[in-house]
Amino acid sequence: GAAAGRGGLCGRPAPPRRDPVYCLPGGGVEATAASGEREIELRIQRLRPGAVVPRRAYSGEAGLVLSSCVRVELAPGERALVATGLAVAIPAGHAGFVQPRSGLAAKHGISIVNTPGLVDSGYRGELLVNLMNTDQRETFVVEPGMRIAQPVILRVPELDRVEFHELPDRI
């Protein structure tokens, strides 16, 4: 479980709720990792039974492993929104970028239609992955628990938009 023994989930008093919330990596909204780098807290809520909480396959990887919680058949050239059964609370100033898994693309021609899929910090709905089967001959079956995508959480800077009549060649 997440943050057991620290008052509530993720080191905060637990709000009243029925569905479990998981935190990666834990601590506060921002904490300092052992490496000295800042880490952020990603709150995750299971919306469906069988939903798999995302994790990193190996330490130090940029992306988390995002899994399907439903069975979907993708005929050649077909696309479908594949449910993960999860919602996330990405902290303000950050965004999630959902990438295809290179192994599914190389071996089966499975990609994400709108890659990278953008998850803004204010979105609280279920994460759905818009998969497409680019193979010309073979149907591909997505099974519950199958790893289908890799979300990467990145800091997004504030922008000071300034309109100019002409732009420089380089900045």
> How many alpha or pi helices?
1
User: What order do the helices and strands follow?
Assistant: EEEEEEEEEHEEEEE
**Strands of the biggest beta sheet: in what spatial order?**
5-14-9-11
Question: Would you tell me the overall average pLDDT?
Answer: 83
What secondary-structure arrangement, pairings included, does this model have?
Blueprint: E1 21-24, E2 30-32, E3 38-40, E4 42-46, E5 66-67, E6 72-74, E7 79-83, E8 86-89, E9 94-100, H1 102-108, E10 110-112, E11 117-120, E12 128-133, E13 140-142, E14 147-155
Antiparallel strand pairs: 1-4, 2-3, 4-8, 5-14, 6-13, 7-12, 9-11, 9-14, 10-12
Plain-language structure description:
With 171 residues, this protein is mostly beta strands. The chain is built from one helix and 14 strands; from the N terminus they run βββββββββαβββββ. It has one helix at 102-108; strands spanning 21-24, 30-32, 38-40, 42-46, 66-67, 72-74, 79-83, 86-89, 94-100, 110-112, 117-120, 128-133, 140-142, 147-155. The chain has a four-stranded antiparallel beta sheet with strand order 5-14-9-11. The longest helix is centred in the middle third of the chain and has 7 residues, at 102-108.
Quick tags:
mainly beta; 36% strand; disordered N terminus; 171 residues
Summary of the model, kept short:
It is built from one helix and 14 strands. It is mainly beta and 171 residues long.
